[in-house]
Amino acid sequence: MRVSSPIGDLPFEPRRVRLVRGGVELEGALGAWPARVRIEASDLPALARLVPRPAIAAAAVGLGLATVLHRRRRRAT
Predict the structure, then answer these.
(1) Where are the alpha helices (DSSP H) in 1-77?
(2) Please, are residues 24 and 31 in contact by the beta-carbon 8 Å criterion?
């Protein structure tokens, strides 16, 4: 992946994806710097405007399933 910024195009190397309270977090490296992207439920409307409707439905189902599974695991421990 590449990220364009005012200082140039930098490679982004994803290293970890995890469910966090209220969303999903992607950790990695942006060039030489550690970077973290956090997507929360409040971000979904903005993201939904960027993708076609079938992809929105698939993402919503995936996020819902991930949330349910995460909650079940937290209750089991």
Answers:
(1) 44-48, 53-76
(2) no
pLDDT in tens, 18-51: 988 888 999 999 888 899 999 998 888 887 787 7
Rg over CA atoms, the chain: 15
> How much is the pLDDT for 77?
64
Task: Tell me the one-letter amino acid at 64.
Answer: G
Q: How far is CA 58 from CA 19, 44, 54, 61, in A?
A: 18, 13, 6, 5
Query: 19 near 66, Cβ under 8 Å?
Result: yes
Contact 61, 44 (CB under 8 A): no
CA–CA separation, 23 vs 64, rounded Å? 10
